[in-house]
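Students often ask why we bother encoding 3D structure as a string. The short answer is that it lets us treat folding as translation between two languages. Here is a chain of 130 residues written in the first language.
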Amino acid sequence: MIKMMLCFLAFFAACSSIREGTTRSIQKDALMAEEIATTDAVNAYEAVSLKRPWFLQSRGPRSLRPPPTGQTTEYPVVYLDRLYYGELQSLRQIPVSQVKEIRYLDFNAATLQFGTGHSGGIILVITKGG
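And here it is in the second language, the structure alphabet:
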């Protein structure tokens, strides 16, 4: 029993990502306004490319069939305040001054929250007014 508790505590301590001198943890799937403010980014695309570049990467094909014409299914798509906004380049139109958080949803989370057709995942941008 004691050995199991020690393993649990070691696992919990290893999973903690709180940096020294801070009270908040850094979430790998979310980028908050406070962290964005530490950059020189002007728009959401720049903020993501500086702090969470893996949000912008292709997840590879999810099927042996080619994607429908005109549709890029392997890259994440952008949702702004929970509404479809566009492809990755649309992040360049969102000023960081308006961003509250930017979150990456993988295929499973995107399908659960927004339905099918998001094989590359979703970059969800929540604005301060949204």
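Translate back mentally: Confidence is low (pLDDT under 50) at residues 4-23. Keep this in mind for the problem set.
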